[in-house]
Amino acid sequence: MSRTEKRMKFQSTLLASAVVVFSVLSSTAAGAQSSSESAASTADALDELLGTDSAATATDPAPAPQVADEEPPAPTTSSSPESEPAVDNAAAPESIPVEPATAIAVAAAPESRGDRIEEIVVTANYRAQDIQDVVGSTQAFSGQSLDRSGAAGMQDYLLQVPSVSFQPSGNGTTKVSMRGISNINGNDFGYASGSPTVGVYLNDVAIQGSGVFPDLKIFDLDRIEVLKGPQGTLYGEGSMGGAIKMVTNAPNPNEWELRTDQAYSWTSHGDANHEARAAVNVPILQDMMAARIVGTTSYSGGFVDYTTRNEPRANSGTAQTLRSILSYKPLENLDLGYMFLYSNDKRSQFAVVDAGKEDELTNSGPEDQYAKTKFTIHSLTAKVELPFASLTSVSSLYNTLRDSQQRVQVLQNLVQTQFIGTGIDAPQIFANSPTHVKTKLKSFSQELRMVSNGGDSIDWIAGAFYRDRSQTFEQEKYENSIPAISTGLLDSALAAANINTTVLLDNLLTALNINSFNPLQGKQEAGDGIENFRQAAAYGEATWNIVPSVLELTGGLRVFSETVGFTIDTNFYGVEAFLIGTDPQNIDPSDGTVGVNFSQSVKTSGILPKLSLGWHITDQDMVYATISRGFRSGSANIYAALSAGPPVVKPDFVWNHEVGYKSTWLDGRLIANFSVYYINWNNIQGTVLGNAKLGIVPTQFAYLANAGDAVVKGAEASTTWLLYDGLMLNLSGGYNNGVLVKAAPNSGVSSGVDLPSTPKFTGSATLSYSTTLSNDWVGDISSTYSYTDTQLMIYPAGEVSDGMPIPAYSLLKAGIGLQRNKFRLQLFGDNIMDKRAVVAISSPSKQSTVITPRVVGVRMSYDF
């Protein structure tokens, strides 16, 4: 039975029931016929009106009448996960069992076929669905369109997603905010940074969590999916703002394939860039085994001059990735898969400039800054098809090694706090402040899930998840502006009095019982520690097809228990030791060293419910409503070493209330979607201004804590319009109003302030056109404009009462290409208007992370 037939039956049944009930009530009131007789006569009247037989309709409804020129109903798509097609509906081999935890949405630039926008079939909740049938605000980008545009990182597609804020740090880390939910306290150390609020997945492997939030290089993907709103039921922790899923192309056991791609480009005010990418598909056993290997290498030229270091265009970087997927189908109902990923990213200096020097692109910092990150993934997947369901096991292990050094002005920040309320910037007493950090992260996860075959009145999913993650770190902080030996008037005065400076210091330190203390040295801190995380969860989701293909009700629940721990052992030297060592409890009486050692863990459990209702009013219109909860695990507070805040911060939670409307118009030429939402964010993990204890003297200091509660109100809209064959227009926009409604006590933050990383308006417009030229050549041209409104970097408090606002910015990119058979040539430009867009600001001496200036280049690809 087609959806139209089911809908007619549903509506007829509702109408008949209403008439019967009314008739029964009327007859009872009038004392006329019995209720059964009245109902029968009313049903006969209804049959006469509709031209149907009520008795027959109850068991064997008549087919829906055919309308002239109406297209036949779309063929029924198998609901089993293995039937997942590519987003572009291009020919693709059968997927290996590395399915997304939930798949989604509208392509950023859907392909057209004839005079209609081609339907996109996805695997929402592990089942094949048309994108317009998926409950929730979603968006997707096909791998074909990503490759065609030369996309290589998150910036290349996230700026086209409404209600998303993207903040790269310049050193390889990235902060993503969705619907105003962000990792406000995120830092670039690689430890004690808290979990991101947006989940990132490569196939079934969740790679978000403590540590560096990676911006993986992308090539030869099937699609990227962006799902907004908390995904607690199926995704679990770390996806309370939304999730990003990167789905790779699957190996094909029956055909060789080689894809190549290389690009050369030039950056305004900077150096040249180059990139080479390749993918090869290797059939091993006919119909049974194949491997797909993808490799990329790139060099990014610098464009920021580090003037003090006399290093022009110093912020260069290199990156290499290797990805291999092996699939094996030994039995008809058994699929096995192995995935390996290696990523090596190196950056010298960073795309950071002095505040006010965005146009000059200069940085006066003297520190030697760098970041070296190695990232590996091993994943094993097994999928068994049972008579009633599919059972999938996913085991994954990922590791991150990071060695970085960057500017962290701890002492200067302490000086700045003494000027709070004066409106005056403190003098740059401590101007050379490198911090060196090494981290090593290991994470193991195991998931088992069972998905019913579908097509029943109730479809279900059930699963269990376990993760064990640990990260060790070593860190050293220096203040190299402090001279190694005493100089100046003090030395002269002491010499005149025949007082030896070294002897004086030794006598003073002996009196204080601080034997290892030397204030005249650059080294300030040295320590190590470990972050531990362990979680177990069980989840389930069921969909009741009240009226199949017309009305569905979905309920889900995830139950979890986790333990988050943090241990640190830090010794202090120099000026920091002098400050902290004034408190006797921080001095080791055995050797006189100044240090802090503590360990703490927090255990948390909870439930994450979900309830949604979808009503397909017609084949072209659907309305939905959903309520869902998401959470983020607790995290470490490194400033607890200064008695500022607790060592471990508790988790935070969100409740999302959302309604939406999805529609198709003009006989498939126009797709328009709209949603509004209201989010409660409780126990926000954020940086607040409180009191730190430097020795026995308390002083104001920023640290990590649960900063209170917030509310986010917003709306999103997206439209895809095939103006005429070959000409496509994509429009999207989002509005977010995030406000802190209840500030934490003694935080220094006021209720009513805007949430950081929450631009009120975001939007993008893409216009693309393709046409067939002579001699089988196809030409195409596209242009994308994106806009991100003003947003705060941190909470307004203390000496940063303005919240360090990031100005609004807009970017324009374009490309023009020629393609014939398997060869493609493209000219492209990014940031064509050469905007000096600021995406992040650091303090206390303000510096700005900037978007790469104008880039123009040429890209060539050939598939063998």
Automatic annotation (TrEMBL):
Give residue spans, biased composition: Low complexity. Answer: 55-67, 76-86
Q: Where is this region: Disordered?
A: 55-96
Instruction: Provide the membrane topology annotation.
Output: Multi-pass membrane protein
Can you say where in the cell this protein is located? Cell outer membrane
- Tell me which positions the record assigns to the signal sequence: 1-32
Identify the residues that the record assigns to the TonB-dependent receptor plug domain, covering every copy.
Answer: 131-243
User: Which UniProt keywords are listed?
Assistant: Cell outer membrane, Ion transport, Iron, Iron transport, Membrane, Signal, TonB box, Transmembrane, Transmembrane beta strand, Transport
- An example of a Pfam family matching this protein is TonB_dep_Rec_b-barrel
| InterPro entries, per the entry | Beta-barrel_TonB, Beta-barrel_TonB_sf, Plug_dom, TonB-dep_rcpt-like
- Tell me the Gene Ontology biological-process terms attached to this UniProt entry: iron ion transport
Q: Which PANTHER family match?
A: FERRICHROME IRON RECEPTOR-RELATED (PTHR32552), TONB-DEPENDENT OUTER MEMBRANE RECEPTOR (PTHR32552:SF81)
State the protein's name.
TonB-dependent receptor
